[in-house]
Amino acid sequence: MTAAHAPAAPPPQPDSTDAEHLQLTTLRGWRRFVHTTPHVPDLLDHGRLTTLTAGQRLAYDEARLTHHAQLVVIATATIRRVTLEGRRLTYLNRRAETGRCGLIVSGPARTGKTTAIIQMAKTLEVIHRQRHPHNGGDIPVVYITAPPAATGRMIAVEFARFLGIPLLRKPNITEVMEAVCGVCLDARTSLIVVDFTDRE
Prior knowledge:
Layout: H1 18-22, H2 27-35, H3 46-49, H4 54-69, H5 77-94, H6 113-131, E1 141-146, H7 152-163, H8 173-186, E2 191-196
Parallel strand pairs: 1-2
């Protein structure tokens, strides 16, 4: 499989299902996340609310509840720092032949590590899209999750799953990584994010 066979980036569209939107560990879900802009529903006054039918009122309430449930991310000092460091390292690595630098974000559970790294990755993908607006088939970011005790084979399979590479029933890790690297090279991937979950 090559980048030419990878699906092009879709235009921003409303999410069809919440579950599909939340699957950041798939190319389709990740692209939906990158392209989604939070929509703030109109706030109606009491007079306008009384004119709504029961169905319209239900839709209005659902839209507002959905908006508040999304918990819009605030650009905290930590998120800004992680994003800045990620951007700096991608610039340093762009021309490096060897000794490329990586970034490790660590800390106690429930402190926002995942939020920080996905915001960094989203920012870097948006920058790539702005720099290369006609390369819709590019996959600048690959994002996967894995438990701390994940084996190399498990991680390789997650890469393949994100990219949509079909696998044999018992894939050989070398063959999987060759396929993954081939797609990443063709698709101009510049950032690989491995999010190690706090629980096994």
